[in-house]
Structures are given as structure tokens and as C-alpha cells.
Amino acid sequence: MVLPLLKLGTLALKTVSKPIAARLKQQAGLHPKFRNIIVSVAQANHRITTTMQRRLYGHATDVAIRPLDEEKAVQAAVDLIGEAFVFSVAVAALFFEVQRNARSEAKKEEIRKQEMEAMRERDDELAKEVELLKQKMAEIEQMAKGRGLAGVFNFRNTEEIKKVGSAV
After folding, report:
1. Is 143 exposed, middle or buried (0-12, 13-18, 19+ CB in 10 A)?
2. Which residues of 48-81 are buried (b: 16+ CB within 10 A; e: fewer)?
3. What is d(CA 122, CA 120) in angstroms, rounded to the nearest whole number?
4. Is the pTM of this model over 0.70?
């Protein structure tokens, strides 16, 4: 029951993060200082991406890369910020899920250890009980050897048998 609700909550968190990212994108383009920072980030991203594409396609990488115009740079940067925000929310949700699963597995392992310990204790108790029964059996056999088989079942000596049985 908890797992589907948790997954539904994670999905809702991702869904809610998209409008927040859109609002963040809108506000990022309006502030002048922040706008200058994101333009430089977008230009750097453009240079890196273009260089990687050129290397991937086998084109020359030592050519000059034309910078983006300011509006395209702002749009690219705010898109990058929005995607980074959604991605960070998804990573946080994934991290939370992994931590939750780890705690759950640790609890299960602890329960398994306790069950194994209980089984070992029960096994030890049963081993002691078997040993005690072996001792009683050996004493009964000793009595039978001493008096013969008929002497063990002789009801006239029931007091002696009871004493031997209670001593063990």
C-alpha cells in the first residue's frame, strides 16, 4: 500500500516541478545580473556542444564558433535551468527511493537475523533435550543389564525406578 502511494507522490512531485521550472525560467530572463550570468553560461554550453558535435561528426574543431544572439542565449539558458531543476527533483526522488529501499532491506535483514538466532537457540535446546534423553536411556539400559529385562518391568521395585528417573 505504501509503495504505490510513494510512487504516486514522486510522480506528483515531478509534475509540480515542471510549472515551478517554467516560472523559474520566466523570472531568470527578467533580472539583468542573472541574465548576464545565464547568457555567459549559455554561450559556454553552446561552444562545448558545438565542439563535441564537430568531433563526433569528424569535422574540424579549430574553427571559430559564432556565439548565439542574446535572446537565443537567454532562451537556451532558461531551458537548461528548467531542465536542470526537473532533473534535480527527479534525482532527489530517486535518492529518497533508494534510501527507503535500503532501510527496508536492512529491517528485513535484521528480522532474518533474529529469526536465525531464535532457530539456533531452539536447536541448542533440542540438542540438550536429546542429550538428556540419551542419558536417561543409558541409565535405563544399565538398570536392565543389572537386573535383566524382566527386572526392569518388575512392578514390585517401582520405587527404585522412580528414584532413578527423578535423579536424571
Report:
1. middle
2. eeeeeeeeeeeeeeeeeeeebeeeebbbbbbebb
3. 5
4. no
* DSSP letter, residue 31: -
Q: What is the pLDDT of residues 15-46, one digit of tens each?
A: 777 777 677 667 766 778 888 888 888 899 89
Q: Of residues 114 and 36, which shows the higher confidence score?
A: 114
Smallest CA-to-CA distance from 6 within 69, 118, 93, 85 is with 93
Nearest to 154 by CA among 163, 165, 143: 143
pLDDT at 96 > cutoff 70: yes
Residues 145-164 have a mean pLDDT of: 58
Q: Supply 145's cell numbers.
A: 543389564
Q: Hunting for cell 535483514 — which residue is that?
A: 109
- Report DSSP letters for 53-82, one per residue: HHHHHT--SSSPPPPPPHHHHHHHHHHHHH
Asked if the model's pLDDT at residue 109 lies above 90, the reply is yes
- C-alpha torsion 33→34→37→43, nearest 10: -120
